[in-house]
Amino acid sequence: MNKLRFQGRIVDAGMWNSLSQVLLKSTLPGVPDFYQGTELWDFSLVDPDNRRPVDFQKRVSMLDELSRGEASGLIPLVRDLLARPTDGGIKLYVTYKALNFRQAHRQLFEHGDYLPISASGKRTDHVAAFARCEGNMWALIVVPRLLTKLSSSASPPVGRRVWKDTLLQLPQRVPEHWHNILTGETLSASGSDAWKRSLFIEDVLRRLPVALLAGATSE
User: Fold this and answer.
1) Residues 183 and 97: beta-carbon distance below 8 Å
2) d(Cα 123, Cα 201) in Å, to the nearest integer?
3) C-alpha dihedral over 165, 170, 175, 179, to 10 degrees?
4) Would you kindly state where each structural domain of the chain is located, as residue ranges?
5) For residues 178 and 145, what is the distance between their CA atoms, to the nearest angstrom?
6) Do 80 and 132 touch, CB atoms closer than 8 A?
7) Which CATH code is given to the segment(s) 107-216?
8) How much is the pTM?
9) What span, in angstroms and rounded, lies between the C-alpha atoms of 107 and 130?
């Protein structure tokens, strides 16, 4: 197969997979490991290190642009970033939002429990999810996996077209209402019983291929 044709088949899946990796390492137990300069796409063929020159001014300018975009609303900002994913802005955005959320909830990520979340439905094999909880504070992290088998489209793996009937089976006594840190949306889990709540992936990943949801119980 022609190398450029092969690259064209995997480049989009590679970008969405990179977003998954950024969100996972920002929220899993342990200390997030970031190399300076990898806040944007890194196309080098060797492991990253901290000795290469980094265009910090470019990153500062892009962060300033993200801050201005947030003031106009997260949904329009996310839509704009996904419309031009190759500039790396979408990766910087997920990094920025996830690390700020982690810093604001240190107890949750330093001492909180780690709970695997199971899924059911047509796309079960293509989603990975877990929760962090400490006291009444919860975070729910959802990312796609096996992306080249999930969708043949170059479009982001979002919405019902991709996720069909797939849903997350939530742990016992989770919050009913969730706030999506990355898009600003509010989601409500289905099921009136706090012991049997669920969320449809098409709602969780409606606008962005990854999700960081925050919620709190009344206890």
Assistant:
1) no
2) 9
3) -50
4) 3-104, 107-216
5) 23
6) no
7) 2.60.40.1180
8) 0.92
9) 17
DSSP line for the chain: --HHHHHHHHHHHHHHHHHHHHHHHHHSSS-----TTTTS----SS---S-S---HHHHHHHHHHHHHHHHT-HHHHHHHHHHSGGGSHHHHHHHHHHHHHHHHTHHHHHH-EEEE-EEESTTGGGEEEEEEEETTEEEEEEEE-SHHHH-SSSS-S-SHHHHTT-EEEPPTT--SEEEETTT--EEE-B-SSTTS-EEEHHHHTSSSSSEEEEEE---
pLDDT of 195: 63
Please write the tens of the pLDDT for every residue from 1-41: 566 666 666 788 889 999 999 999 999 999 898 888 889 98
Q: What are phi and psi of 158, to 5 degrees?
A: -130, 155
What is the rounded average pLDDT of the residues 103-119?
A: 95
Tokens 């043949």 label which residue?
152
